[in-house]
Every structure is written in C-alpha cells, then in structure tokens.
Amino acid sequence: MDIGHIAPRRLADTIVEQLETMILEGTLQPGERLPPERVLAEQFGVSRPSLREAVQKLSAKGLLISRQGGGNFVTESLGGSFSDPLIPLLENRPEAQRDLLEFRRTLEADCAYYAALRATEVDRAHLKNAYEALQACYANDTDRDLEEEGAADARFHLAIAEASHNVILLHTIRNLFNMLKSNVVTNIGGMYQREVETRKGLVDQHRMLFEAIMEGRAEDARELAGTHIQYVQKVLSERSENHRRLERSLRRDKLSRI
Length: 258
Hints:
This protein is mainly α. It is 67% helix and 3% strand. The protein has two domains: 11-74, Arc Repressor Mutant, subunit A; 91-233, GntR ligand-binding domain-like (Four Helix Bundle (Hemerythrin (Met), subunit A)).
C-alpha cells in the first residue's frame, strides 16, 4: 500500500481559517476594521510575519481590503447578492416591497425560533442592549428621529439573527437590510409615523418577541416574529391604499376646478 507523506500545515493557513470563521459567523462584519497587526498577532499567539501572510491570502480571496496607512478591513460588499442598479428598482416597486416582507416573515420566524433555542448569555446581553436602544427611541416623543427608529428596529432584528447561530440566516437577513437601508430600513421607518395605534402595536410586539426569546420559548418566538411581520405588511398596505385614495381625490378636485 502506497502511503503519501502528510504535509505539515502552515501557520498562516490556520490563521486564515480562524479569520474566515470570524467573518462567516458575524464576529467580523462587512466594513469592520481588524485590530492592529501587533494586537491581532498577540491575540492569536502567532508571529507578525505569519499573520501578514494570512492577511495577504484573505485579500487575494476578496475577503479583506488593505488600505495604505489605514489598516485591514473586511470587504464592505460581502454577501451582496443584488447589483446596485437593481436596488432602486426594488425600492420603488410596491410589489417588490410586499415580496420582501413575505420573505422576511419566513426568515425572521426561523431566526427567532433558533435564537430562543440557542442564544448564549453573550447573545442575550447583546439582544438586551439592542432592545433597550429601540425602547429608548420609542420613549423619545419630543424629538423623534424616524430614520434612527428604523435603524434601531433593524439592529434589534439583526441581534436576533446573530443569536440564531445560523450563518446562512444571519447573512441573508443582514443583506436584506443593507439592500434597502436607504429606504429607511426596508420601509420599517415608514411605520413610525404619527399613528399612535401603530406605534403601540410595534412596542408591544417587540416586547413580547424579546421576552419569548430571552425565556427560551421557541415556538412562541416563531409565532410572534411571523405575526409582527404580518402586522407590518397590513399597516403598510393600508397606508399605501390611503395614499392612492388621496391622490384620486386630489385629481378629481383638480378637474372640478377647471
């Protein structure tokens, strides 16, 4: 029997694997700067030449970008499955918004289910911080920033995705939010208009979802997440229909004045 030699593994390849895992699991996020070379080498317990070689390999794969005098960064566009010209088309099509929310309903229900089952103490602390930041936005009635409320909403849902410990769900959810962030985070910001009932509904839903995940009630978390997205669909659909009715009335009024 012919037995080949086992080649020793290069240290740089082990570092590459570790950094790839950190990128995949979301520890290192798109656009995030890596710690300085000296610090990272100390954390990994490796030499700086080995770390430098690993960074070069990841740069060649398109996972890292090195900036002269600025350090090394995770590539900003990781996970981007939609080309830039397509984004405005999707943002301006009501049917695409509906399809996106239907997709979110399926994904986020699963995220909530697995988060309730798998969240670690670290995940729960992160989720608690995101929830409290969202609550702080809710509490600010005098100087409201609708875009910030929408962004806080997105961060809360991303924290749930991270706690699911499913990297496919995490990167899919993150990509969906990044894709339409110019539209106030997938139209969620449009929910935070001055309607008191809508706002109260969102507050209650996020509270119940947060509690279900923190208490490990997986089936409840799945149902509550799905109900939340269904509520968003309903309110946005009603707002869209009201807008169409107003436009119709204005056209009639304009014609009657001719």
